[in-house]
Specification:
This protein has 334 residues and is mostly helical. The chain is 40% helix and 3% strand. The protein is built from 13 helices and 4 strands. The structure holds heme C (2 copies).
């Protein structure tokens, strides 16, 4: 090789080296500038860590074709058409009032804000202050049978109780343990500053509810053992021990779901109308339950539990209709 050639080769090598070094440096700088904008953990958004995903229920066509799948399907059938099997003329046993679980747990417990079952599998067994015990899903189902359906409990180990539980577990199967997704259960409405007013609630009832549930609130039958429109009070309704007898549960359920068919994006009632019509409904006569064993620790009674004795100085009327703000404030640790 001639001298000039050797110089040329060296120059070429040097150029390749410096270009590579430059590219490498630019790469480093890109990484440094880009990194802080990225999530610290895969799958977590970089901003707004509190934004919750709206629950998306599983599709019933995904229930497997196995004996376990058959149990789940039977459970769904029992939730949707309880009266056929467990109502006064039920084919399995006459142990409940003729309502369906689905009358309150809408779309077989799959409707967003429709008192759905999204967080049952993920949070039970759990301690419940009403009974003062740790409750299984079986026990919780029986609670609703005895109260919301004003009936009797199913026996542990019965095919029906197993089916309810299998279905409810399946509905919540995709929800991570110990969490409740957005849209779960019943929505908490903002509290009113004044008591809810049953008289004004009656006006709402006549305008928005009576056409289905009847002027007398006794609902309307269809062919067969089920209600076309279930009763809201009277002998065929839930009893005074039911969760929906508490004003906040009733108001939140009504606001997000009634008149039947409304959803979060098609609400009809204002918050105040929902509280007032709920107050009207819970002021009507209904079956009584012996509640002596409930809330063994009276300081755990919810702010809207309408039966004393209480650990605070507020009256039964205020615990029933509000205003609840002062009661809630008095509960907060000082
Ligand atoms: C009259 C209305 C009504 C009927 C009918 C009803 N429930 Fe309920 N159920 C409720 C209310 C209200 C709650 C409590 C919701 C809350 O506290 O936010 C509840 C809670 C539950 C829960 C616990 C949910 C949770 O997230 O902790 C289960 C499980 C349940 N019901 C099952 C049933 C089954 C099964 C039936 C039929 C045998 C039934 N319910 C019938 C109103 C009803
Ligand atoms: C278009 C008819 C219709 C209208 C109007 C309507 N409801 Fe209902 N309501 C229903 C049906 C149907 C169910 C049971 C849903 C199911 O089984 O899928 C129901 C269930 C309920 C329940 C729970 C079950 C029970 O019997 O306790 C309450 C409470 C309720 N409605 C209150 C109201 C209130 C309050 C209004 C007026 C703001 C209202 N509804 C308007 C049809 C209607």
């Amino acid at each position: 090789m001639r001298n000039e050639d050797r110089v040329l080769v060296n120059v070429a090598r040097l150029t390749v080296w410096s270009v590579s070094l430059c590219l490498l440096l630019m790469g480093f700088m890109l990484v440094i500038v880009w990194l802080p904008g990225q999530p610290t953990e895969p799958g977590l958004p970089a901003t707004d860590p509190v934004a919750k995903q709206l629950w998306s229920p599983p599709d019933s066509t995904g229930i497997p074709d196995t004996p376990e799948g058959d149990l789940i399907r039977y459970g769904r059938e029992l939730v949707a058409h309880t009266a056929v099997y467990l109502g006064p003329s039920g084919t399995v046993a006459p142990i409940s009032n003729g309502m369906n679980c689905q009358n309150c747990h809408l779309k077989a417990g799959k409707k967003i804000w429709g008192n759905n079952y999204s967080a049952v599998a993920s949070t039970y067994p759990k301690f419940r202050a009403r009974s003062g015990t740790i409750e299984t899903i079986e026990r919780r189902v029986n609670d609703c049978l005895e109260r919301s359906l004003n009936g009797k409990a199913l026996e542990e180990g019965s095919r029906e109780l197993d089916a309810f539980v299998a279905y409810i577990r399946w509905v919540g199967k995709d929800v991570p343990e110990h969490t409740a997704p957005e849209g779960c259960g019943i929505k908490d409405l903002p509290l009113l500053k004044k008591p809810a007013d049953p008289e004004r609630g009656k006006v709402v009832f006549v305008a928005h509810c009576a056409r289905c549930h009847g002027e007398d609130g006794q609902g309307m039958r269809k062919e067969g053992p089920e209600w076309l429109y279930p009763p809201l009070w009277g002998p065929g309704s839930f009893n005074t021990g039911a969760g929906i007898y508490r004003l906040s549960r009733m108001a939140g359920y009504i606001k997000m779901n009634m008149p039947n068919g409304v959803r979060a994006d098609s609400i009809v009632l204002s918050d105040e109308e929902a509280w007032n019509v709920a107050a009207f409904i819970i002021s009507q006569p209904r079956p009584q339950k012996d509640l002596a064993g409930d809330w063994p620790d009276i300081s755990t009674k919810p702010f809207d539990y309408p039966f004393g004795p209480y650990a605070d100085a507020f009256s039964e009327v205020q615990h029933k209709l509000g205003p609840f703000g002062p009661i809630v404030a008095a509960k907060e640790p000082k």
